[in-house]
Amino acid sequence: MKKRLEKLGNLGHLGSLGLLGSLGHLGSLGHLGSLERLARLALLVALLGLVAACGGPSREELASLAAKGYYDHLIHGEYEQFYEGMDQRTLPGDSTALVLSADSAYRSQMLDNLRQFMANQEQEHRGVLEVRVSNATTDTVQQFTNVFLVLCFGDSTNEEIVVPMVERNGSWKMK
Q1: Cα 40 from Cα 16, distance rounded (Å)
Q2: Phi then psi for 31, rounded to 5 degrees?
Q3: Cβ of 54: how many Cβ atoms within 10 Å?
Q4: What is the average pLDDT across 130-150?
Q5: Residue 82, Cα to own-chain centre: how many angstroms?
Q6: Which of 22, 98, 137, 141 is the most exposed place for a label (fewest CB within 10 A)?
Q7: What pLDDT is attached to residue 172?
Q8: CB of 89 closer than 8 Å to CB of 168
Q9: DSSP 3-state assignment of 141?
Q10: For the segment 42-54, what is each residue's pLDDT rounded down to a tens digit?
């Protein structure tokens, strides 16, 4: 997948944004403020839009970039942005999910759960330092893409997780 992204206009230098794994030579964005990270992410989205007009990246590449972006928000303490990346719809006709997603108490509880999860990772592994994309596969029958992310912890351990992604009205969301 990295090679395909490089072919799409030599995007290797975008690795410095932390969005293309270890392709960049500038490192991660840990030292940058939220506003600067957001500006760089917006630039990446604009560049990907330009690339999309010229043949564009695959579903797997787009889902991978979105999943990595959401998890980057999570590890930088931007819980609201991570929460916004969650698909609020579960099953067609499931009105419970729609009611819960609109409920501020539910939202508050989810944000507290995210904070607690990151606090646990800090205690158990000295935090999550980086998120890398490992692979992505699309299930055309179920209409979702599994993105495999590697969480790189402060204690030098890694853990691969699977993030099912679904496209909703042109935007990728975590199932």
Answers
A1: 10
A2: -85, -5
A3: 8
A4: 96
A5: 8
A6: 141
A7: 97
A8: yes
A9: coil
A10: 666 666 665 555 6
Q: What is the mean pLDDT of residues 167-173?
A: 93
pTM above the 0.70 mark? Answer: no
Q: How many CB atoms lie within 10 A of CB 163?
A: 22
Taking the C-alpha atoms of residue 149 and residue 66, their distance in angstroms, rounded to an integer, is 11
Question: What's the mean pLDDT when you consider all of the chain?
Answer: 79
Output b/e per residue, 7-37; b: 16+ Cβ within 10 A: ebeebeebbbbbbbbebbeeebbeeeeeeeb
Angle at 131 between CA 134 and CA 43, to 5 degrees: 100
Regarding beta strands 144-153 and 171-174, do their DSSP bridges make them parallel or antiparallel, or are they unpaired?
unpaired
**17 and 36 in contact (C-beta within 8 Å)?**
no
Confidence of residue 82 (pLDDT cuts 50, 70, 90): very high
